[in-house]
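Posting this for the archive.
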Amino acid sequence: QVQLVESGGGLVQPGGSLRLSCVASGNFFSVATTGWYRQAPGKQRELVATITSGGSPNYVDSVKGRFTISRDNAKNTVYLQMNSLKPEDTAVYYCNVNFKLIRSFEYWGQGTQVTVSS
């Protein structure tokens, strides 16, 4: 059973920064696409950023230039550095990994709350 453990959420003022981390169990991480999604109250879960096994990032337009996704395959960890945070970034952030070995696998973390408020 693959487990994803997120950390790094919290309360921050507008303009502040946070770094989220997600550690994955198992030995598939280096071949997986990993990413971060978020869900605000009353809204659907949305993609924030993904990074392929080769290190190519992809961002939703609303976070481009403010958020950076990165990964450390030796530590089975994916990060999301969030700068210039805005109140509209407030949400529960979820880590996601997916990979294909004969069939497709997809796993989610339990979520970490990010609140941007003065």
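The chain has a mean pLDDT of 96. The radius of gyration is 14 Å.
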